[in-house]
């Protein structure tokens, strides 16, 4: 995710496009609310209070991106892919690894759903939430360093708790790739879409995204509800992101690629029939 020290100013048309996307969501939402025939079935069950909250998030996002020279790190093409999936789901459970100046955008795209951000830096969480208090975020403690990526990749298969069908997250201290100490709501909820755009992974002491990718794969395989889990991984131009995605998220589940973003649709492990699928990730 983009942080203050890494911000790059983007062309004015990207800011305009973001405002247009968010405004479009808001327009469709109000059209549905005033229509006799609901386009999105989930809207019908929402309360007026939830309606007002969704609108406020979207209006805040429009105001932010219309008046700021700071825009998301992802390109418009990359953003649009995730936007299209979020709109197809109507409202969903959306887990985002990373918190930044694009977080208000993601939350507004899923204003009628549940969006949660996981961030490594407690001070950064305070900074972002000060300006966007409607966002929901938790701090994550990573047990890995980027310098360990190759060793972890070559040894994780020897740890039973890292491998399907025994792989799990909550309290799994034996598997270093498992995010074992997240808030309960992360484990208790099934996430329809997971965006991995953090933690930092560009210097040896950084946590790297190995644990985020592993944990997303475990969450997706544990899904019980119908449907697949959409996983988006950014910065696949970097070697570690690429090799871990191929190892854990699997090329056979990749359904799209735009710029530095890969899109996977991972089915629940219960839906897999081959023996190899139940004893490994790919």
Secondary structure elements and pairings:
Elements: H1 12-33, H2 48-67, H3 76-89, E1 93-97, H4 103-109, E2 114-119, H5 122-131, E3 137-139, H6 149-155, H7 184-188, E4 193-196, H8 210-221, E5 229-234, H9 239-249, E6 254-258, E7 261-266, H10 275-278
Parallel strand pairs: 1-2, 1-4, 2-3, 4-5
Antiparallel strand pairs: 5-7, 6-7
Helix pairs in contact: 1-2, 2-4, 8-9
What does the model show?
The structure is a single chain. This protein has helices spanning 12-33, 48-67, 76-89, 103-109, 122-131, 149-155, 184-188, 210-221, 239-249, 275-278; strands at 93-97, 114-119, 137-139, 193-196, 229-234, 254-258, 261-266. It has one domain (72-278): Rossmann fold (3-Layer(aba) Sandwich). 40% of the residues lie in helices and 12% in strands. The protein is α/β, with parallel strands linked by helices and 282 residues long. It is globular, with a radius of gyration of 19 Å. α1 (12-33) runs antiparallel to α2 and α2 runs antiparallel to α4 (103-109). The protein contains 10 helices and 7 strands. A 7-stranded mixed β-sheet has the order 3-2-1-4-5-7-6, with helices on both faces. β4 (193-196), α8 (210-221) and β5 (229-234) form a beta-alpha-beta unit. The two termini are 27 Å apart. It is a single-pass membrane protein. Its main location: Golgi. It comes from Vitis vinifera. It is found in: Golgi apparatus membrane. InterPro entries: IRX15/GXM/AGM (IPR006514), SAM-dependent_MTases_sf (IPR029063).
